[in-house]
Amino acid sequence: MNIKDNILKLLNKVDDVCNEVGVKSESIKIIAVTKNVGIEKIMQAVSCNLRDLGENRVQEFLNKYQTLDNKDVKWHLIGHLQTNKVKYVVGRICLIQSVDSIKLANEINKKAKELGVIQDILIELKTSYEETKFGVDVNHIDEFLNQVADLKNIRIKGLMTIAPKVNFEDEARPYFEIAYNQFEKLKNVRQDNMEIQYLSMGMSGDFKAAIKEGSNMIRIGTAIFGERK
Ligand SMILES: *Cc1c(COP(=O)(O)O)cnc(C)c1O
């Protein structure tokens, strides 16, 4: 298993599907998901120019944050975040992708205000009921936006979603389509703390389907680093 080869293969597949749907492959941001991956392998991915790294556990992120030279990389938090761990990630994580409650948004805002920073976040959208118990229900998005409208130290950059596991990749497309429709709607909402840019969806098993449905940020672990132990 060679990380450089894996990345080249991945980039080729992304190119192919982008050509197929008529979008520029440069418009798709790839997040290298480094959970359970050691520093050496992460460095290999970074040296292949993958500089956006995704972690889903705070403690694991902190260990790596202390070890890696962070001026070279941008960290994304993609896993569920408990409010009591917010203090460890605000200002260190460039994009908190998994904001799934008003309480969490409030806590992030509070910490960001203390530090005098604006924290970029994505709202995690629940597009299915099988895969995850986390995420804001599609029907509650408007209410969510209203409730966080006055939080000046967060900036909502878009949406993240996780599709359920399916047997055939294209079966994930309806879930991605739901997220895309919400993403398009959000672009028309005028709110000071919103700057809609990213639709984060697609993992190793379903990124092609996600790109076909309008994703511009894919989160890839296995296809880069191999199967996790
Ligand atoms: C682990 C993980 C990924 C990457 O999954 P792979 O199938 O290994 O590409 C993407 N997004 C989230 C939220 C994850 O937890």
TrEMBL record:
Domain Alanine racemase N-terminal: 29-228
Molecular function in Gene Ontology: pyridoxal phosphate binding
Modified positions (N6-(pyridoxal phosphate)lysine) in chain numbering: K35
Pfam family, one: Ala_racemase_N
Keyword set, alphabetical order: Pyridoxal phosphate
CDD domains (alphabetical): PLPDE_III_YBL036c_like
Function as written in the Swiss-Prot or TrEMBL entry: Pyridoxal 5'-phosphate (PLP)-binding protein, which is involved in PLP homeostasis.
UniProt-recorded name of the protein: Pyridoxal phosphate homeostasis protein
